[in-house]
Amino acid sequence: MAMTTEQMIDFFGEQANAAASEGMLAAKEEGHYYLATINCGEAFKCRLMKSLIQWRIGTDPSDSLSEAAEGFADDWLTVSTIGNSDTQSADVPAERVAFVAYLIGKPYPIVPSSDGLQSDRLLDLVLGNWLFDSWNGELWEQGMEQLRRMDRTDLSVRTYELYKSVVDATGADLPALSQEGEKLFAKRKSDSFFSGGDQTEGGGPDNDFTVDYRLAALLKRAGFDGTSETHAWKW
Known about the structure:
By secondary structure, this protein is mostly helical. It contains ten helices and no strands. It folds into two domains: 1-113; 116-235, no CATH class.
């Protein structure tokens, strides 16, 4: 029997707490860097998933998104302490935290390095930095070229092309770009590339319970106020 949305919210909350408490504690006690990175990433993704489900059903996800951003900052400190000079931000989903932090008006808890990032992860880094007033066109072109060379990425390429259009858009363009983003997000439900990714990315059945948080953050940065749109920030 499928879980209700409330049960899903509770489930991902419990999974996040387990990763951030038991998982990170075990990593700290063992001095195990990669165990720390795994639990740091898992806690962030579960907190984000909880937030996206709340968002999709119309519940204010601000508190849960704050938990995701602040919890990541705490976990990253543990990762950095264990890893010391070997710590790499590419070992955790640091580039995605920018979208969460920007939506809720929080500072970027970590400015990731581009070292070790490719394709969509590199593109996320560039977009996240744009939210906080920096743009690197060279890294953008590099990431797009890498993404285009990968298998089954047509929808992902179109999605990041849309994101770039939002970056470059005037206010009059934003309603149409928001609507196009909604159509592209719906296509993720039957797209093999997104279905093979994290649940937070809306592939497969998770498409019905999530939103495009990247698009929402970019639209907010661009000045869009379409609060009736599914993938727009309303809070």
